[in-house]
Design a protein that fits this description.
45% strand; 434 residues; five-stranded mixed sheet; single chain; RNA Polymerase Alpha Subunit, Chain A, domain 2; 15% helix; mainly beta; eleven-stranded mixed sheet
């Protein structure tokens, strides 16, 4: 038993003393490695990644000339370098020990894109050599930041339509506010012609409606190309309100009136012979009473002004009450001569009628050549006896002994025949003793 106790003591002693020897050996080895590294290899290369890029305009000519950097996402740019320096100084360096700064040259005084070199340094002044660097340069755009006002705002409502028999007044759509203020690079601001606010809602409207708090706004140049607005600040606040007028819509045929028509004349016959260059017009109004209209009257025509080559242009006047959706501004009216004919007849019997009794009258003009128009079958056999040509003095105040007076021409037994043109005769007036 004593033998085993003695053996156990020896083993424990060896273990304790051998473990200490191992520790001492490790410490000595590390110290030796450090001593050799410092004395034999005093410098070392080191690669450091993810150094944030910094750019400052403070005190530069660019700042003095009102320039700003408008390139986006520069704060996402990082630099990777491999440097060589004192092992004791750079051996523990991380990205936090280095600064990667874009150098602003003195000659940058105007807006434009410039390539800047990137300089990597240690803020505490530790010196080292840059063996490699990525990136070495960066492209940066400089511009002057300005604000423009009164950019007109239009509305786009691709999914909004009018109910049946209604129409959206696209010309009357109002955006509130009507204009927009924008801050950003001057070169971009110069391109802006107008802004469009998009209304995404899908609706069918039967009355006026206002869309509120619309914020989907797009900028366009004068050619209709979309402008990149990532570098711009738009003063849209809570958005735009878009008011959409909705009108009642009707499509009406044109009609026209005849004036100075003798009794018994078949007006409808002639109106059917008048042809319109455009047959109908589409109008709209906020007042639904527009549906009471059955036609749109262009005006009136004096019957005697209609000849075989008749053609006249009438302006369309909606009197400010209706919107002209057709866009038609004039209509030409002409006479269809198909089945009609004309004839010039010499008339010699021209009586004076409804004359004041205080004068005695005599027609000096002995004859008139009168042109009449009507259906071929009526005109073919028409003679002077079929025409009644009279000088009607109803209400006429005689001032001279001889005067010119217009006559009326009718064909009493031919309701579809009319005289084309105006005719006058000279009349002598002799005062009676009564």
């Amino acid at each position: 038993m004593s033998f085993f106790r003695s053996l156990k003591k020896k083993i424990n002693w060896l273990i304790r003393h051998e473990f200490r020897s191992l520790i001492y050996s490790a410490v000595i080895a590390i110290f030796a490695w450090f001593l050799i590294s410092v004395t034999i290899y005093p410098t070392t290369p080191k690669t450091i990644r993810d150094i944030p890029l910094t750019i400052s305009l403070a005190g530069t000519a660019a700042e003095e000339n009102g320039l700003s950097i408008i390139t986006k996402d520069l704060d996402q740019v990082t630099v990777t370098v491999t440097i060589t320096g004192s092992r004791s100084q750079i051996g523990s360096f991380t990205a936090d020990n280095l600064v990667a700064e874009a150098v602003i040259p003195k000659n940058i005084t105007e807006a434009g894109e410039y390539t800047l070199s990137i300089l990597v340094t240690n803020p505490e002044g530790v010196s080292f050599t840059v063996d490699s660097q990525s990136p070495k340069t960066i492209d940066v755009t400089f511009d002057r930041i300005q604000t423009i006002h009164d950019i007109p705002v239009q509305a786009n409502l691709p999914n909004v339509r009018a109910a049946e028999n209604m129409t959206l007044d696209t010309q009357g759509i109002e955006c509130m506010p009507e204009t927009l203020s924008i801050t950003g690079p001057a070169t971009t601001l110069e391109l802006i012609d107008h802004a469009v606010i998009n209304v995404p809602d899908t609706m069918e409207l039967s009355s006026a409606y206002t869309f509120t708090n619309c914020t989907d706004l797009v900028l366009y140049d004068q050619d209709g190309a979309e402008i990149d607005q990532s570098a711009l600040q738009l003063a849209i606040g809570n958005g735009f309100n878009v008011k959409v007028p909705v009108y009642t819509k009707v499509t009406l045929p044109f009609d026209i009136s005849l004036t100075y028509v003798p009794n018994g004349f078949d007006t409808e016959f002639l109106l059917r012979r008048l042809k319109f260059s455009t047959e109908e017009i589409t109008l709209a109004a906020q007042n639904s009473s527009i549906t009471d209209l059955t036609s749109w009257n262009l005006g009136s025509i004096v019957l005697s002004s209609i000849d075989t080559d008749y053609q006249k242009t009438f302006d369309i006047d909606t009197r400010g009450q209706y919107s002209n959706l057709s866009g038609i501004t004039t209509v030409q009216v002409s006479l269809d001569m198909d089945g009609l004919s004309s004839k010039t007849i010499r008339v010699t019997d021209i009586p004076v009628v409804n004359a004041p009794s205080s004068y005695k009258y005599s027609v000096v003009t002995r004859s008139l050549n009168v042109t009449v128009i009507g259906p071929e079958e009526d005109i073919q056999n028409l003679t002077e006896k079929d025409l009644l040509v009279t000088a009607d003095l109803t209400g006429y105040n005689v001032k001279d002994a001889s005067f010119e007076h217009e006559v009326t021409v009718t064909a009493p037994d031919h309701s579809r025949v009319w005289a084309s043109g105006s005719y006058t005769v000279w009349i002598d007036a002799e005062e009676t003793d009564e």
